[in-house]
What does this fold into?
Amino acid sequence: MPSIPPGARSEKLADYVRRCLPVVWREEKLKAADRVELSVCIASGASHGSIEPHDRHVVILYFQGNGSSLPPRLPYLSDVLKGLSKPPEAGIPSSVRYTTVALSYRGFWSSQGRPSQQGIEQDAAAALDWTIGTYGSKGEPVKIVLWGQSIGAGVATTAAARHSSSSGLRVPGLDISGLILETPFTSVKEMLTTLYPQRWLPYRYLWPFLWNWWDSKEALHTLGQSRARGSLRILILQAGKDELVPTTHGMELEDICKRNGIGVQRKDIAGALHTEVMARAQGRRAVVSFLEEVGAS
It folds into this structure.
């Protein structure tokens, strides 16, 4: 963890075009700080109503889990964009544009390099800087939402925490407005204990030697001390039948948010396994509703 899933290098966007329509994805390239070339997939959708230069724009930066290549996730991301394109409900602005930027980590799909935590953190920082630089300088109100699935939730919280406390690329008035944590775990260390609960097994004691140490608890505490706390909102999505991550992990992250004054909501998606949250209508509706709230704020 992270690992490259079988077939991750051979997936093609063309294989998923029909399942994504009418949403159309395009691939672009960017480079991390160490010059590793990365792939991102980009698609846009809009709620009903005319889109003018000064209308609201919500940009979602998506961080995948490590159990799949990026292209198979695009139909689910497309379903969310389609849901955001439905006729608006009363009180929701009718001219909000939504763009999704989905990052393929180094070593996955068509990105160069080999995956590691340090490398993926550089990838996330590069993708966030690219997103802010691309969409934050067009003169229209922009809100950034980071969305991570499974290990991607750790990538998202870490990227948000580092951005909130760094002097990196910024656009005045533009901060991260939302986090979507889909089937998150609290930390790699606590997942080791979850996977190997028996005290007589040595594995649970080997966490100091792990190559990966993502810790969403620590990242949320950092966000709670940042200036972004007041405007940040978080959605935690848990799989009702998650076979990997216990429900207590999401509950603990929710509690940390509340204790740090961060707006949070947690949803359990009934019947879903770890990778099935977006395959369920309840999961898609929760994300669409959350993004509409961000667009309306």
Notes: The chain has eight helices and eight strands. The two ends are 37 Å apart (CA to CA).
